[in-house]
Design goal:
The chain has 14 helices and 10 strands. With 388 residues, the chain is an alpha+beta fold. The protein has 2 domains: 1-67 and 249-388, no CATH class; 92-165, no CATH class. Strand 8 and strand 9 form a beta hairpin. Helix 5 (119-136) packs antiparallel against helix 6 (140-157), helix 8 packs antiparallel against helix 9 and helix 8 (195-214) packs across helix 10 (231-246).
Length: 388
C-alpha cells in the first residue's frame, strides 16, 4: 500500500535539517511554536488553524516561526496588521459557522414544523433567545458570533416570503465576500498601500508573466483579461503580495514542470516551501494513517487511489488548501514529498505530524499563485507555484 524508506537521520550543527543527503532532504521544524509571552517554556502549543479560509496565513507563519529573530519580528507593525487580517477572517468564519449550525438544526423535522407554522414568531423568538445568550458572552469573539447570527435573523425576518434555506445560501456567499473585502482593504490601508496605484502596477507585472506563458498556452491571455477586470481578484493578488513581504517570502524557481531534484535543491536552502492546491484530508476518501515514525516527526499518508479527484476537491476546498513543504525524497523507484498541514495542531511534547505523498500527485494537484488553477506542465515554468 505504501512504499516506506527509513530515512537516516543526519542532524546538522545548526539543527536546520533532520536529513540532508544528495537525494533526501527533510527540514527540522520542532513541534509547537515559540513562546512570545514568557521566557519559559521556550515552545508552546500551536493550536489548529482558526477559520477555514486562513490556511495560507498559517502556512506562511509555519515557515518563519523557526527563523532567527522571529520573536522580535512578531512585534513589528506589519506582522501585527497581518495578524489582525487573520483575526477578521477567523471571526467571519466563526459567524458563518454559527449561522450554519442554526440552519442545520432548523432542518430537524420537529423544529422545521414549528418554524413552518409561524415563521415570523419562530424567528422573533430565536432573536430574543440569542440576544440573552449574547449578553452572557465574555469574549469579543463570542459576542461577535451571536451578533452575526442575530443580524442574519433580523434580515431574514424582513424576507419571510423566501425559503430560509435558499436565503441562507445567498446570504452566506455575500457575507463571506463582503467581510473578506473589508478585511483585505483594512489590511492594505494599514500598510499604507494605495490600492488603485499598486493594483495597476501589479497587473502590469502579471501581464508580463502571462504573455510569456500564453506563447505556449494562449487561453491564459483570456483568463488574465477576464480576471484583471475583477476588483476582488486584483485585491486578492495585492493581499498575497503583501503577505509574502510580511513573512519574508520570495518565489522559488521550482515548478511542477521540474524534476524532484529541483525541489530538493530548493529545500536545501533550509526554508519550507509554501504551495497551494488540492491537498489535505478533505481531498481523500479515506483517513490518513501513520506510515513512518522518526524522533522528530510522525509521518502519515493515504492509501493509493484514495484521492477524491478534481470535482470533489473543488466542492470541498474551492480555492484549494495551502501547505508547507518541508521534505523531498528520491530513490531508484519512488519519489516523495513531505509537508505540514496548518490545519493540524502541534504540541511541543509530541512528534509533529507530517504528511507524505508521491511527487507525481503533489505536482498534479498544485495551483499556480496567480490564477489558482491546476498545473499544466507546458506553462508551469512561467508562473510562480511556491514561495520560501
Amino acid at each position: 500500500m505504501f512504499h516506506n524508506i527509513e530515512l537516516s537521520q543526519n542532524n546538522q550543527p545548526d539543527n536546520t535539517f533532520v536529513v540532508n543527503q544528495a537525494n533526501n532532504v527533510l527540514l527540522n521544524l520542532p513541534s509547537g511554536k515559540p513562546n512570545t509571552k514568557a521566557p519559559q517554556p521556550k515552545r508552546v502549543l500551536q493550536p489548529i488553524q482558526k477559520g477555514w479560509s486562513c490556511c495560507t496565513y498559517y502556512a506562511m507563519k509555519i515557515n518563519v516561526m523557526q527563523k532567527e529573530g522571529y520573536l522580535i519580528r512578531q512585534k513589528e507593525p506589519d506582522r501585527k496588521q497581518a495578524s489582525l487580517y487573520r483575526k477578521a477572517l477567523t471571526q467571519r468564519d466563526a459567524i458563518l459557522h454559527n449561522i450554519q449550525q442554526y440552519i442545520l438544526l432548523l432542518k430537524e423535522e420537529k423544529k422545521h414544523n414549528n418554524f413552518l407554522k409561524n415563521p415570523g414568531y419562530y424567528i422573533k423568538a430565536s432573536i430574543e433567545n440569542y440576544q440573552e445568550e449574547g449578553k452572557k458572552a465574555t469574549s469579543s469573539m463570542n459576542q461577535a458570533i451571536y451578533s452575526g447570527l442575530i443580524d442574519f435573523l433580523n434580515i431574514y425576518s424582513k424576507n419571510l416570503s423566501q425559503d430560509i434555506f435558499s436565503f441562507h445560501k445567498t446570504y452566506q456567499e455575500n457575507f463571506k465576500s463582503q467581510k473578506w473585502q473589508q478585511a483585505a482593504t483594512d489590511f492594505l490601508k494599514s500598510l499604507n498601500i494605495d490600492i488603485e496605484i499598486s493594483g495597476k502596477e501589479l497587473l502590469a507585472s502579471i501581464s508580463v508573466l502571462t504573455k510569456q506563458a500564453a506563447l505556449i498556452n494562449p487561453k491564459l491571455s483570456q483568463v488574465f483579461e477576464s480576471n484583471s477586470k475583477s476588483s476582488l481578484w486584483v485585491l486578492r493578488q495585492l493581499v498575497n503580495q503583501q503577505l509574502h513581504q510580511v513573512f519574508d517570502l520570495k518565489p522559488v524557481t521550482w515548478s511542477p514542470a521540474n524534476k524532484i531534484e529541483d525541489l530538493i535543491t530548493s529545500l536545501k536552502t533550509g526554508k519550507a516551501m509554501i504551495v497551494s492546491g488540492f491537498y489535505g484530508q478533505l481531498c481523500y476518501s479515506k483517513p490518513s494513517m501513520v506510515v513512518l515514525k522518526l524522533d522528530t516527526y510522525q509521518v502519515k499518508g493515504w492509501p493509493k487511489g484514495s484521492h477524491r479527484g478534481t470535482t470533489a476537491c473543488m466542492q470541498s476546498l474551492g480555492q484549494g488548501h495551502t501547505i508547507a513543504v518541508i521534505g523531498a525524497e528520491k530513490d531508484d523507484q519512488k519519489e516523495y514529498v513531505y509537508y505540514i498541514d496548518p490545519g493540524d495542531s502541534s504540541d511541543p511534547s509530541q512528534a509533529r505530524i507530517v504528511y507524505k505523498m508521491s511527487y507525481e500527485q503533489f505536482c498534479s494537484n498544485a495551483f499556480d499563485d496567480i490564477f489558482a488553477s491546476r498545473v499544466e506542465p507546458k506553462n508551469a515554468r512561467y508562473l510562480p507555484y511556491g514561495f520560501s
